[in-house]
Design a protein that fits this description.
The protein has 8 helices and 8 strands. The protein is an alpha/beta fold and 222 residues long. Strands 1-8-7-6-5-4-3-2 form an 8-stranded parallel sheet. It starts with a strand and ends in a 5-residue tail after the last helix. Helix 6 (180-186) links the parallel strand 7 and strand 8 (191-194). The chain is globular and about 45 Å long. It has one domain (4-217): TIM Barrel (Alpha-Beta Barrel). The structure holds 5-O-phosphono-D-xylulose (5SP) and fe (ii) ion. The site of fe (ii) ion (FE2) has 6 residues, from strand 2. Its cofactor is Mn(2+); Co(2+); a divalent metal cation; Zn(2+). It is an enzyme of class 5 (isomerase). One of its GO terms (cellular component) is cytoplasm. Pathway: Carbohydrate degradation. A divalent metal cation binds at residues 31, 33, 64, 173.
């Protein structure tokens, strides 16, 4: 299975949304960043834009909720057709319950960790999730620099997943380009969000292919 590339629509030109969706049709999923001016100091978009993109895109959406109180909002994205719904561990006291609600509503649940958040408190509930997102920037903005200090956490998670034979994808998000994707793949990521590096490329399809090939070339058997 080759590396999965999820362009972050946050970096698209929203005045030309239809054409932007067309430019990334060879990607695996569309990454959709929801920000609420509360969990993060930025506001992006929510359900109306989600529904517009879902209705007009051939690719399903990978929703990344950077919001407070995810238990209240996450199942709605699953019901509206999201392929996966990711919420932050820091935003809830009961991540296992939120994960079950997302799954019951028809999407794959995923747990996101900010760069400074450890995975250890969540090891016993990994079975509730289909994916863990190791943030490689502080959530809130596109276009930031990749944080290599998050790589030991990613590697520890990869070793645990392989040792226990868990069905868990490991996603990275933030500052992913043709250079940093190699580092993330070497440390065990298999799913890659890329905003600026895809939408900023003149040929987005070629950039998606370059990212996929670079990740595959740096992936150890797992
Ligand atoms: O969740 C976030 C930011 O909080 C991301 O999904 C960004 O949108 C990725 O953008 P680039 O760092 O690739 O430009
Ligand atoms: Fe994101």
């Amino acid at each position: 299975m080759s590396a999965r590339i999820h362009p972050s629509i946050l970096a698209a030109d929203f005045a030309r949304l239809g054409a932007e969706l067309e430019r990334i049709r060879t990607a695996d999923l569309i990454h959709f960043d929801v920000m609420d001016y509360h969990f993060v100091p930025n506001l992006s978009f929510g359900m109306p834009i989600f529904e517009t993109i879902t209705a007009s895109s051939p690719l399903p959406l990978d929703v990344h909720l950077m919001i407070s109180d995810p238990g209240r909002w996450a199942p709605g994205y699953a019901e509206a057709g999201a392929a996966s719904v990711t919420f932050h561990a820091e935003a809830t006291d009961d991540p296992a319950a939120v994960a079950r609600d997302i799954r019951a509503a028809g999407a794959r649940p995923a747990l996101a960790l900010k760069p400074g958040t450890a995975i250890e408190p969540y090891l016993e509930i990994l079975g509730e999730f289909d994916m863990v997102l190791v943030m490689t920037v502080e959530p809130g903005f596109g276009g930031q620099a990749f944080m290599p200090e998050t790589m030991p956490k990613l590697r520890a998670l990869r070793e645990r997943v392989d040792a226990e034979g868990l069905e868990l994808r490991l996603q990275v998000d933030g500052g992913i380009d043709a250079t940093t994707i190699a580092t993330a793949a070497e440390h065990g990521a298999d799913t890659f969000v890329a905003g600026s590096s895809v939408f900023g490329a003149e040929n987005a399809a070629a950039q998606i292919e370059l990212l996929r090939e670079t990740a595959d070339a740096h992936t150890h058997a797992h």
